[in-house]
Structures are given as structure tokens and as C-alpha cells.
């Protein structure tokens, strides 16, 4: 709630600055406000319910601030915003938030309508409500109190929501007119203001363009389908248009599927009777061409995933047909067990397409990781790609190639088996190369050198076998480049191994650091110990160990027995001169 108040204060400050313009008119950055609110309150993740709740809370705060309450808790009293009340641009913001709340509710219902079709009626009602609020906003902005830019933005916003309503009603001509009006206004605004504001307007134009093309196609413009396919490749047409575009492509392929009867592969013609398989095989060439044209890695990954999902669904449909055919064969007595059936061969063909697509996708990901691996790390705190990541990708590629060699109907196709074994050797060489790279990182020079020799062995074997299969290497990575790179790495490795002779003793000392050896006991050697700058640095051992110290010496007076004392007889006689009286006094202590 605190962040929302801060955002609202920022927007309000911006709006108040607009009021102080030279013409004295009220201003409201309609597109900027709704875009910032949408991005900060749920629409970045497609959460329309969260955004609707934000609009409701903001409406309540605005009404309370402006003193524009609809009655009290006991009774509702409706109020309308009139032109005479436009002393503050927050009245315009109030109407805008009402339109946004209705629109977000409609988009939420659109997501739920995929599983509950009855919600489509409620969706249309909320869209009409949003368009009605936008029309009210446009009428308020027609006042002389509002500046020209806000009037244009209000007209574009109304045209956009009107086009959305007509689009859902499949009134293609009316929707196209509304979207074209919206596009024209935003293009004019983009050319009239600063670059920062122009970017926002151009983004809105890019969002509207797929809808216009789709309406044109439904009106009868057959050239629009090519533009839509191009927008699909560039990642345009998200949200509502994505589903429409996919259904449009499926419809176009369904019409063409009626003319397709068979497919030829590996010298054998196979009849295609399953509609799902026909539709998939018709679109296969278009999908592969689309993937080849794309340069953005994220879009290419999305197209690969879409193609693989369609292929899996098609294989499942063929598998169901294959089960029915197997049951019929078991019932019939004249079953031909020697030859692979047409349905089984079609299943093998579709599985071949799936596995080859997997290989191409993983190879594309491997190329991207290799490029990132050669780049210097900009941020050391973030984990960059490592050779282990590439090893995993090549493992998946080799697994797919192993499945290719076991496809039914191709066991006796020796040319096919040779091609698969040749591809396996190529990817084994690359996998072995990156295993060697991972050993180089941990300074295991001998293991890395042996693996580089293994890479050269695989590469030379590929070159010798490729002479009989000329067309098999055109889609594979260049082996000659790999050989040159391995030779360079070998020389670098040998030099690093020679220079690293003094550092070989450092490995146990690293382990001693892990064994809690304090710093005071290893001052003569330099080690990078990250714990020294942490909260508990291991500097000295505390409490220290006990150490033996010498005890305090004992002295014995042995010379006393050999010392001759002077005679004291004269002194003793003087004490005795007191007589008997002195003696008695001495005994009883009287004389002391």
C-alpha cells in the first residue's frame, strides 16, 4: 500500500505540473499513467485481477481526496462529473480509472472464458462498460479547460477500447476503423513530442498493428496473412492476438489438408488419412522456414517448442490409430508380420521429425552458449555458462541420435544408419572437446590432453567416412574448424602445464585452508581465502593450545652444615650475671 501511495503521489505531481502550462489548460498523460500502473500492478505477469483491485483502491482514494463520495455506507447517491467541475485534473483521472477497472475485469474474464464459455457474455458487458467510460472521458476533454494533447490522447483511448469491443463481436470492419483511428492519433503524437514520449506511443502502435492486419484478413485481404506470419516471427501480437493468430493458421492449414493424400519419405509413399497428421505435415515446411528466418534466440526457442508440441500431439493421434490397427491385425488370420504397415511407417516418420527437431534445437542452444563462453565475463557475481552446460546438451543430442537408429522400418536402410552413425561421431567429438575444456579449468592437464587426442581421432574418422556420404555433412558443425581449435588448445595446454609446475604444490595448501588452518600458521605462502574478509575470519587459533614452560626453581642450603660460627660464650656469661632473682624474672617474663 505504501508503494501505491508513492506512485500515486508521483503521478499527481506530474499532473499538477501539466496544469501550469502556458495555455492554462488541464493536462493528463493518459497513456503514460495507464502503462506505468499496469506494469507496476500485475500486468507484467498477466495478473488482471490484481490490477483490477489496484484500480478499485485508487478510485476510492481519489473520491475521498476530492470529496466526491457516492453517498454513505447506508445509501448510494449517484453523482456525475460535469465540465463545470473540472478545476482539478484528478476528476479526469477518476473517469480514466473507472474505464481501466472495467477493462481489466474484461481481460480477467477472457482468461477464465477458456474453461467457462458462459463468462464470455460478462466479458462483453464489461468491455462495453469500459468503452462507455472512455467516451465520457472524451466528452469531458472536449472542454476548453483541457489542453490539446490530452484531447488527442482521450480520443485515441476511446478508439482503442471501441475497437476492442468490435473485435470481440467479430465486427471486423468497425474494429479496423477504430484501430486505424487510434493508430493515426498515436503516430501523430509520436512525431510531435520528445523521443522519450515517442517511444511509448510507438509501442502502442506496435500493439495495435496485428489487430488491424487480422481484421483486414477477415474482411478479405489475403495479403494480410503474410504480414501476420511475419509479426509472429518478430514476437508481435501478444495477448489476445496470439490465440487468434494460432487459430487462423490452423484454419488455413485445415483447408489445405483436404488436398493432401500421401507423403513420401526414404523412397516409400505413405498415405496420410489422419487429419491431425495432414495439418502438421502441411505446416512443417512453413515452421522450419520461420525458424530459419528468426534471429532472436527467445523467439526461435518459442517456435521450436511450438513445433515440438504439435509434433507430440500428432504422434499421439497416430499412436491411437496404430493401436486400433494392431487389434484388427490380431483378429485377422492373414496378418502380414514381415512388412511394416503404413501407419507404423508414418509413426516412424513423425518420430524422426521430432528427434531431428530436438537435435536442431539443442544444437542452436549449444551455439548460443559457445558464443557466451568465449565472451569475457562482465559481472563476476553472476554465474556464466560453463563447459558442463554444453556437455549436457550434447548428451541429449546423442540420446536422440541413438533413438533414431532404432526406428521401425529403417533397420535395413544402410544409408540411413550410416548417416546416423556419422552424425553421432561428429557430436561425440564436440562432447569430448567440452569435457576436455572442463578438465582444463581444474588444471588436469594430462586428462585434458588425452581427451583432445580423442577429439582428433573422432574428427579424422568423420572425414574418412564422409567421402562416401557427400550430403550428410551439410547440416552438421564444421569438423575442420574443430580440428584447428583442438590443435591450438593443445599447444596452449602444454605451455600452461609447463608454467604451472611451481603451482602443483599449491593444491594441498588449498585443502589446508579448508581444514581450518589459521592465517598465523601460513604467513609464508599467499593463498586466496575468501573467509578472511567474512564475518568469521580464521586468523589465529583461539583458545590457544597449552605449551610446556619451566617451573619455579627450588633452592636447598647445603653449605650450612659446613659453616663454622664464631663462639658466643662471652655473651652467654653476661646474661647469667643477674643471679637467682634475674633467673626467676626471666622464667616468669617479668624482666622482658
Automatic annotation (TrEMBL):
Main location: cytoplasm
Keyword hit for Nucleus: yes
Coiled-coil residue spans: 308-335
Official protein name in the record: Signal recognition particle subunit SRP68
GO molecular function: 7S RNA binding; endoplasmic reticulum signal peptide binding; signal recognition particle binding
Family indicated by similarity: Belongs to the SRP68 family.
Highest taxon in the source lineage: Eukaryota
Protein location: Cytoplasm; Endoplasmic reticulum; Nucleus, Nucleolus
Keyword terms: Coiled coil, Cytoplasm, Endoplasmic reticulum, Nucleus, Ribonucleoprotein, RNA-binding, Signal recognition particle
Biological process terms in GO annotation: SRP-dependent cotranslational protein targeting to membrane
Pfam hit, one: SRP68
InterPro entries, alphabetized: SRP68 (IPR026258), SRP68-RBD (IPR034652), SRP68_N_sf (IPR038253)
Gene Ontology CC terms: cytosol; endoplasmic reticulum; nucleolus; signal recognition particle, endoplasmic reticulum targeting
Annotated function: Component of the signal recognition particle (SRP) complex, a ribonucleoprotein complex that mediates the cotranslational targeting of secretory and membrane proteins to the endoplasmic reticulum (ER). The SRP complex interacts with the signal sequence in nascent secretory and membrane proteins and directs them to the membrane of the ER.
Amino acid at each position: 500500500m505504501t508503494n501505491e501511495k508513492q506512485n500515486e503521489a508521483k503521478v499527481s505531481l506530474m499532473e499538477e505540473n501539466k496544469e501550469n502550462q502556458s495555455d492554462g489548460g488541464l493536462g493528463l498523460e493518459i497513456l503514460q499513467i495507464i502503462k506505468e500502473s499496469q506494469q507496476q500492478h500485475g500486468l507484467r505477469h498477466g495478473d488482471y485481477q490484481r490490477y483490477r483491485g489496484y484500480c478499485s483502491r485508487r478510485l476510492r482514494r481519489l473520491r475521498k481526496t476530492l470529496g466526491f463520495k457516492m453517498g454513505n455506507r447506508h445509501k448510494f447517491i449517484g453523482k456525475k462529473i460535469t465540465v463545470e467541475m473540472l478545476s482539478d485534473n484528478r476528476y479526469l483521472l477518476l473517469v480514466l480509472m473507472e474505464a481501466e477497472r472495467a477493462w481489466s475485469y474484461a481481460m480477467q474474464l477472457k482468461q477464465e472464458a477458456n474453461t467457462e464459455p458462459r463468462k464470455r457474455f460478462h466479458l462483453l458487458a464489461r468491455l462495453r462498460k469500459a468503452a462507455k467510460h472512455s467516451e465520457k472521458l472524451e466528452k469531458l476533454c472536449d472542454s476548453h479547460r483541457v489542453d490539446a494533447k490530452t484531447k488527442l490522447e482521450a480520443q485515441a483511448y476511446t478508439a482503442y477500447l471501441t475497437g476492442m469491443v468490435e473485435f470481440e463481436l467479430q465486427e471486423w470492419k468497425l474494429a479496423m476503423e477504430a484501430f486505424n483511428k487510434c493508430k493515426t492519433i498515436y503516430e501523430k503524437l509520436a512525431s510531435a513530442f520528445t523521443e522519450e514520449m515517442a517511444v511509448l506511443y510507438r509501442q502502442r502502435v506496435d500493439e495495435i498493428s496485428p489487430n488491424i492486419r487480422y481484421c483486414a484478413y477477415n474482411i478479405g485481404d489475403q495479403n494480410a496473412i503474410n504480414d501476420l506470419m511475419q509479426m509472429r516471427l518478430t514476437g508481435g501480437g501478444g495477448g489476445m492476438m496470439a490465440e487468434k493468430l494460432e487459430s487462423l493458421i490452423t484454419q488455413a492449414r485445415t483447408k489445405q489438408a483436404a488436398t493432401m493424400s500421401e507423403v513420401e519419405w526414404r523412397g516409400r509413399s505413405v498415405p496420410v488419412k489422419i487429419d491431425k497428421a495432414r495439418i502438421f505435415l502441411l505446416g512443417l515446411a512453413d515452421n522450419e522456414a520461420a525458424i530459419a528466418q528468426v534471429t532472436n534466440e527467445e523467439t526461435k526457442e518459442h517456435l521450436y517448442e511450438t513445433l515440438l508440441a504439435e509434433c507430440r500431439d500428432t504422434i499421439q493421434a497416430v499412436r491411437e490409430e496404430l493401436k486400433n490397427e494392431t487389434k484388427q491385425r490380431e483378429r485377422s488370420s492373414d496378418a502380414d508380420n514381415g512388412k511394416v504397415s503404413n501407419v507404423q511407417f508414418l509413426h516412424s516418420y513423425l518420430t524422426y521429425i521430432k528427434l531431428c527437431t530436438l537435435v536442431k534445437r539443442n544444437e542452436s542452444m549449444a551455439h548460443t552458449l559457445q558464443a557466451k563462453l568465449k565472451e569475457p565475463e562482465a559481472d563476476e557475481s553472476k554465474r556464466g555458462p560453463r563447459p558442463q552446460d554444453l556437455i549436457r546438451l550434447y548428451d541429449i543430442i546423442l540420446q536422440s541420435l541413438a533413438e533414431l537408429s532404432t526406428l521401425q522400418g529403417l533397420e535395413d536402410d544402410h544409408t540411413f544408419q550410416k548417416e546416423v552413425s556419422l552424425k553421432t561421431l561428429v557430436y561425440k567429438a564436440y562432447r569430448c572437446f567440452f569435457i576436455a575444456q572442463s578438465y582444463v579449468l581444474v588444471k588436469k592437464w594430462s586428462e585434458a590432453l588425452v581427451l583432445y587426442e580423442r577429439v582428433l581421432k573422432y574428427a579424422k574418422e568423420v572425414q574418412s567416412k564422409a567421402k562416401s556420404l557427400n550430403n550428410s555433412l551439410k547440416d552438421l558443425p564444421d569438423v575442420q574448424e574443430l580440428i584447428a581449435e583442438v590443435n591450438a588448445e593443445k599447444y596452449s595446454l602444454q605451455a600452461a602445464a609447463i608454467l604451472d609446475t611451481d603451482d602443483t604444490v599449491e593444491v594441498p595448501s588449498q585443502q589446508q585452508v579448508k581444514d581450518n588452518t589459521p592465517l598465523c600458521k601460513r604467513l609464508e605462502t599467499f593463498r586466496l581465502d575468501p573467509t578472511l574478509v567474512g564475518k568469521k575470519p580464521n586468523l589465529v587459533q583461539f583458545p590457544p593450545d597449552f605449551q610446556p614452560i619451566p617451573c619455579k626453581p627450588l633452592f636447598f642450603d647445603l653449605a650450612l652444615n659446613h659453616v663454622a660460627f664464631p663462639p658466643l660464650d662471652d655473651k652467654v656469661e653476661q646474661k647469667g650475671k643477674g643471679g637467682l632473682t634475674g633467673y626467676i624474672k626471666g622464667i616468669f617474663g617479668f624482666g622482658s
